Amino acid sequence: MVSPQRAERIPLIALFFLCYVIKVQAVSYRERPESLAVREGQTVTLRCAFIGLTAQSVVIWEGPPNFNVMSTDRNVDSLYKRHRITGNSGRGEYSMEIKDVQVSDAGGYRCSTLGLQEKAEMMLDVIVPMKKAPKIIVSDISITAGQSLTLSCRTTEGSPLPTLTWFNGTTQVQQSNEELTDDRSIASLDLVLPELTRWDHGRNFTCVADQGHPELAPLTASSTMLNVKYSPVVRIRSQSIRASEGETLDLSCDVDSNPPATVTWRKLGGDIPTNAENRGGTLRLPTLDRTAAGVYQCQANNGIAPSGLGSATLTVQYPPHITSNFNRKTSPFVGQEAFSLLCEAEGYPEPRVRWRRKGTKLYFGNPLQFSRIDYDMEGDYECVASNGQMRDAVRQIFLDVRGKPYINTVSLKVSVRSGDTARLVCEILSDPLPEETRWLRRGPGQQDKPVTASQRPGIREEETTSPRGVTNTLVISHVGRSDGGVYVCETTNTFGTFQREFNMEVKGDTNTQAVVIASITVIVLLILFATIFICIAKRTGLSAGVKREKATSSTLTASRALPPLPPYLNSRSVPAMDPDDMDGLELQDFNGTLKPRPPPRMDKQPYSIGLSYPSLMHPLPPYSTVERQRPDGEDNMVDSPYLEDPWETEDFMTPPALPPKDLPGKRIDSSVLC
């Protein structure tokens, strides 16, 4: 039976025990051990660090073989003389350092302490590089095409033992099998080639050994090249050969065989030329002639059946040869018609004869015909004879055109602005060269006068000479409008004279044209504004005067006698009027009707511009009688069918007269004129 005092202590002990367990279980890794590899003889550190260690915590390292205890806290077992614990214990660091690592150090390691739920494990691989490359063993040294072959790759070097791989050049090939001994001291890999061909000859097969850690142990490899024997294979580079007579020809026979074959030549249906040289795969035929043509065969033999055989057909051609013996140069004259050059050649096959201008690829027929000779045709021409694959035969002739000069200038119209410099270029083709070249100016009556520098400053000539002729340029500085016109370039040599006209047009200055256009525009605008103003004035001020005149027209007194009636008025067209009623009225004719004429205004001259009577304005027939008044105030009645001066009439604003039938009894208002 437990005493009461002990019963009170049990919960307290349990509480302390629980706190201790919680503290122990709170331990964790700050740096877990990780697997790594190291090269034999180097120094390696296996890192391990904790969080939550207490003063009572104990760190244990375990290692190979079979996870034996190697150290407790910082104490290392005496069996491990190359091992020691490193790091700061206060920070929970318990790393193990191994110097001069040996193969026996490889294996599993574990770093742990009390309270860890999982103990971290790591693997240490100790790499011993291979000292020698793997060895390749060939099952049959002498192999012939059609047989099989086995290649074996073996090695006993390195730790761990490498993985072996076969490569054909740079291409990995399928591995047939891999053999390892029970103690894993030998690695072996075989490659089986079931049936070899001539294409396998010279192939490079490589066995590569890989220990898995190229940074510590580089890859090693061994290679072998296959030696496969096979019968000769013959190939003629060209089965149909064409050669020219007189050339040296090499007939080549390419032979592929292992071992090398012996090559012999023969000609079917004849003998090989006596000067032929047999150089194994090449038969040289120096200085060919037509008898060398035929079928040639080469035969190759290396002791492995069957032998190789190839053939080629040789055709000997005759090169073209130009037989025409024409001179190196011919000299036709300008203007000569139906001129031709004939070229003849021979060869086999029969050559094709053509002409071309030297330096061009445009061909002409044979003979070369010219309808009419001019200077543009001068130059070198070549007769070309060709017959297929042979080299062409070429003979050259120079066409030297002679005659009077010719001006070849294209642009005969020159346009220049006033004030600029004009250049008239006269390009002269001539053989012989011109003796004299001058410029003329064509005046009235087709008269030509020489243009010289003495006429005015700024005129000069520039002349350059070329093999084909002369270029003469007339330069006129500060051109004015008076300089425009027709200029003539005249050139002369032994055979005659030639002229060419140049038309020079001098345009006005751009600023002057702009001023003229602007002035015309201003004048038109002023006329337009004046017209509008007159129309407005007539519609406003003058209409008021018309009304006043209508109001007072009945009280006007005639100042002159009534004019006589026109001849065309008779008693039927004019109603009878009492002479007493007509007293004091001046009548005027209006379309056959007598109307009162307004009294004259004595305060103004009757011929003054602007003096008019709009209310009484009417058209006058061209045959009516019109009253005129002289400037001195005297009355004068003039009977005339037409007016000599319409501006001298009293009503000068009256529009042109219309026939009476067009205005039957209608009055014209002057306002409609606008």
TrEMBL record:
GO biological process, one term: cell-cell adhesion
Membrane topology: Single-pass type I membrane protein
Keyword flag Disulfide bond: yes
Family matches, as SMART domains: IG, IGc2, IGv
Region: Disordered, residue numbers: 438-467, 628-674
Transmembrane regions: 514-537
Alphabetical list of InterPro entries matching this protein: Cell_adhesion_signaling, Ig-like_dom, Ig-like_dom_sf, Ig-like_fold, Ig_sub, Ig_sub2, Ig_V-set, Immunoglobulin_dom
Segments of skewed composition (Basic and acidic residues): 663-674
Any one GO cellular component localisation term in the record: plasma membrane
PROSITE patterns hit by this protein: IG_LIKE (PS50835)
GO molecular function: cell adhesion molecule binding
Keyword Hydrolase on entry: no
Any Pfam family the entry gives: Ig_3
Domain Ig-like: 11-123, 134-220, 232-315, 320-395, 405-505
Matches recorded under PANTHER family: MAM DOMAIN-CONTAINING GLYCOSYLPHOSPHATIDYLINOSITOL ANCHOR PROTEIN 1 (PTHR11640:SF164), NEPHRIN (PTHR11640)
UniProt name for this protein: KIRREL protein
Gene: KIRREL
